[in-house]
C-alpha cells in the first residue's frame, strides 16, 4: 500500500487492511475483543431462567472468522433458546445468581414438625451440570448480598466449583455509598464460608472475593428509562471501603459534569429547590442578631437592657 492509501485510511477512520494481516495476528485481535459480561440466572420452580445483555458478543455479528475465534477462545456454550439465545463463556463471563443464605446455627424446628423439616430445593449446581457439564468449570460468579444483619453462609456450595477464581458481591454503582457496609459484610460471610470449608477439606482453594460494581455503559449510562432488560455490566471491583468511596467521589464528579453540560452553567430549578429545602430543614442553630431599639438611634441600649427578657420596649 502506497502513501496515498495510507492518507485515505487515516482520513476515513477505516482499517480496511485488516483482512490482509496474518491469520495469527487477526486471531490475537479478535481474542482481545472478547470482554467479560454478566449473565443473570433466576431460579423459579426448580428451573433456571438465563438473561444476557442484548448484542453483547459483538464477535458473533462481524463475520464467520470472528465467530469461530469467539467459540475457540471464549468457549461459549448455549444456555437457553427461550425467549432468546443466551450464550455463556465459563472462562470469561460472570454468572450472577442468588446463593441464598442460612444461619450458622442449626435450625430449631418445633417438636411436632421434627420429622418433616422444610423442603430442600433442587440442587443448583446439579441443575447447571444438567444443562452443560462445562458449567462446572465456572471461573467467575457474582452473587446477591446477604441483607440480614447476622453472619450467615451461602446455601449453594460454592466450593463445588473447583476452578472458581473470583467471587464478587453484586452492588449497584449508584448506591454504593448506602450499601457499602452490607456489601463488605457479605464479603466477610463468603470468606468465613471458605474458612469453614477448608477446615473440612484442605484441598479447597479460596478464590478472590470482593465487591463487584454494576453500572450502565455507553449511551445507556445517563438514560432515565432503560426498558425491561437489565444491561448493567461490571464497571469496577472493590477490595476495601477506601476504593469504594473513591469511586463514589468520581461518580459524583461525573454526574456534576453531566448536569453542567445538560443544563448549562446555571443551577437547574429542581436542584436549587432541593438546596433551599435542605437549608430550611438544617438542624444548625441560626445566629441571633440583637438590633438597637427603633426610635433612639443616638442612644443604643446597654448590654443589660438588650439581654433582659423583662426590659420594656421603647416606643
Automatic annotation (TrEMBL):
Residues 305-315 have a biased composition (Polar residues). Residues 15-95 form the 2EXR domain. It comes from the Eukaryota. It holds the Pfam family 2EXR. InterPro entries: 2EXR (IPR045518). Residues 286-315 are annotated as: Disordered. This is 2EXR domain-containing protein.
